[in-house]
Amino acid sequence: MNCRILATMDFCLRCFLAFLLMGGVLASRNGGDASFDQNYDITWGYDHVKSLDEGRQIQLSLDHSSGAGFGSKLSFGSGFIDMRIKLPGKDSAGVVTAFYLTSHSNNHDELDFEFLGNREGKPITLQTNVFANGQGNREQRMYLWFDPAADFHSYKILWNQYQIVFYVDDTPIRVFKNHTNIGVSYPSQPMQIEASLWNGDSWATDGGQTKTNWSHAPFQAHFQGFDINGCSDHQEPNVEPCYSTSYWWNTQKYWTLDSAHQRAYENVRKKYLTYDYCSDRPRYPTPPPECPQ
Ligand SMILES: *[C@@H]1O[C@H](CO)[C@@H](O)[C@H](O)[C@H]1NC(C)=O
Ligand SMILES: *[C@@H]1O[C@H](CO)[C@@H](O)[C@H](O)[C@H]1NC(C)=O
């Protein structure tokens, strides 16, 4: 071969390598690629956890002997936390699948998604709760507009200094505003991301009257999406550095819902909300101060 051909081949090889490298950089910048082990650890029920798809999917199982759970390696002081979940199908009455943020402190902060299973053909309930400085009792419950056991959906929690928003896919379903100016505590402690599958049949379905039918065990929940959009740049217990607007979820766009999201939020609550502590008069003769007047 003459020199010109060799030089061209060399050039092409370099191009090809550069192309591959760029592809790699783009893929990791687009995210969605972290394996479970990079960001999470199993916390209990080790033999009831299965890693699938090279760690891109995790299966938790529940039977009479145990459920299982996992948690993030790091704690976070703000973020837009996202998990893709497919719930146990068929008869899942009594079975609770949980995805939440929690601090591990005495007066703890916690933001919960809890999916309450049901008999086959009856709807699964999504319960959310907010704990701040140890105080919870802020349950809201709703049905979903799809079957959450049929496929994966995204469940997300936005947490910045201004608001906490729970999302189902891209629809906001709950907003908890920073109302510290009227004396309501607001989550301010570093929280870990956790998920678990367990037997809640003492309370979860029809107030505990509908029990888990163990002949359907093992119940299985599947999780995907182990990248974390969260700020871990803090020295516990102070999360101040996580309020920086260098994190996109702290920028003004995320301080309130925009009008399209506000409409979607109102619409979904009108159609699917089944319980709101804010309007439970027997329980709260005077609505708690954070509730809309
Ligand atoms: C809540 O909002 C106030 C301003 O009204 C702010 O100073 C404070 O840092 C916020 N609290 C948290 C925990 O983000
Ligand atoms: C539990 O499931 C089995 C199998 O489908 C069924 O035969 C049985 O009647 C169920 N038990 C209850 C209490 O629903």
UniProtKB/TrEMBL annotation:
Q: Keywords, A to Z?
A: Apoplast, Cell wall, Cell wall biogenesis/degradation, Disulfide bond, Glycosidase, Hydrolase, Secreted, Signal, Transferase
Keyword Magnesium included in the entry's annotation? no
* InterPro entries per the UniProt record, alphabetical: Beta-glucanase-like, Beta-glucanase/XTH, ConA-like_dom_sf, XET_C, XTH
Q: Which GO terms describe its molecular function?
A: hydrolase activity, hydrolyzing O-glycosyl compounds; xyloglucan:xyloglucosyl transferase activity
Active-site feature positions: E110, E114
Q: SUPFAM superfamilies in the record, alphabetically?
A: Concanavalin A-like lectins/glucanases
Q: What class of enzyme is it?
A: transferase
Mind telling me how this protein is modified after translation? Contains at least one intrachain disulfide bond essential for its enzymatic activity.
Q: What is its EC number?
A: 2.4.1.207
Query: In terms of domain of life, where is this protein from?
Result: Eukaryota
Query: Where does this chain mainly localize?
Result: secreted
Question: Where is the secretion signal located?
Answer: 1-27
**UniProt-listed GO biological process terms:** cell wall biogenesis; cell wall organization; xyloglucan metabolic process
Localization (cell): Secreted, Cell wall; Secreted, Extracellular space, Apoplast
Q: Which residues form the GH16 domain?
A: 27-223
Keyword Cytoplasm listed: no
Q: Which GO terms describe its cellular component?
A: apoplast
Hey, which family's this protein in?
Belongs to the glycosyl hydrolase 16 family.
Q: Its biological function? A: Catalyzes xyloglucan endohydrolysis (XEH) and/or endotransglycosylation (XET). Cleaves and religates xyloglucan polymers, an essential constituent of the primary cell wall, and thereby participates in cell wall construction of growing tissues.
| Name of this protein | Xyloglucan endotransglucosylase/hydrolase
Encoding gene, per UniProt annotation:
LOC105125760
